[in-house]
Amino acid sequence: MSLKIVDKPAGAPVHKRNPGYPLDLDWVERVRMNRSALERRANTIGARRTVKKDYQLAWLLRAITLLDLTTLNSDDTPGRVERLCAKARNPLRRDILEQLGMEGRIIRPGAVCVYHAFVKTAVGALEGTSIPVAAVSTGFPHGLAPLETRLGEIEASVQDGAQEIDIVIERGMVLRGDWQGLYDSVRAFRKACGAAHIKTILGTGELATQTNVAKASLVCMLAGADFIKTSTGKEKVNANLVTSLTMIRMIRWFAEETGIEIGYKPAGGIAKAADALRYMALMKEELGTHWLQPHLFRFGASSLLTDIERQLEHGLTGRYAADYRQPMV
Ligand SMILES: O=C[C@H](O)COP(=O)(O)O
User: Fold this and answer.
1) What residue's CA is closest to ligand 1, atom 8?
2) pTM for the full model?
3) What is residue 201's three-state secondary structure?
4) N- or C-end of the chain: fewer Cβ atoms within 10 A?
5) How far apart are CA 212 and CA 175, in angstroms?
6) For this structure, is 307 an active site residue?
7) Is this prediction's ipTM beyond 0.85?
8) Domain extent listing, the chain
9) Residues 5-24: pLDDT tens digits?
10) What residues pair up with 301 in beta bridges, in sequence order?
11) 229 by DSSP, 3-state: which?
12) Rounded distance between C-alpha atoms, residue 22 and residue 179, angstroms
């Protein structure tokens, strides 16, 4: 079986990082989203078979490479983080890899995502792999600590070896329409990240309207975000296809205006392989398969890999494995 995991055509241009742009308030004011039109469009995703059966296994393998393998629990321990990193090193059971004809091939997730307190542990446990550690910094999940504290947390995470920083925005700034405040804070976060890539978590379930989600997406991209991310996983409403459509369309608009490609990270509540395929289909239809690469798309998910492994096994054998065969951590 030949499975193409990541499109990297020889001579493909190197990804250009978002340098950030001045805040264009006229552009922000022009942004409007029509929720019912978005809902109609989102309903078409998954209404028919999302991915042809023959390609499903390849898409599920691709999904693993797009995964920020995450543990963000208040009772996380170094031991749990180490087990998650061991899973990141070998995301699929050997027998599944063999049946796929993929033994000897390296399949790795996009990153391992942890709280700041566990960055050092994760960096140590992933040594010798190319898997980056992502830290949720800036007072995750609410983002309401003093600005200096949040900036200090970013610097500490980078110092400990995080190569990606998932920051949270202050939702109140969006609700008040304080676009300058949002822009200035994200700009400061981006500066504190230095070479580490910055993913801006919008907390979309708390932003009240799709127009707010769209405007916040734009302001974060203007401020230099490398990724825009939906949710912390702790809000009452987390990632969904309607909000994804809003954010993806802002990414498209931003790319048309600036030539800069921003990554997209749906996160929170994505636990089923079938959901992952729907998000991937949405990306493919709205932005093209080019966007389904780890530097442009990630799932933020704590349990998705378990179901992907289950569905891969089912696709190969027609049977589901018992849960104990696929423990997560
Ligand atoms: O950023 C990642 C999310 O916190 C993961 O959420 P989840 O536990 O619902 O998959």
Assistant:
1) 302
2) 0.93
3) strand
4) N
5) 8
6) no
7) yes
8) 25-44+51-324
9) 444 445 556 789 999 999 99
10) 69
11) strand
12) 12
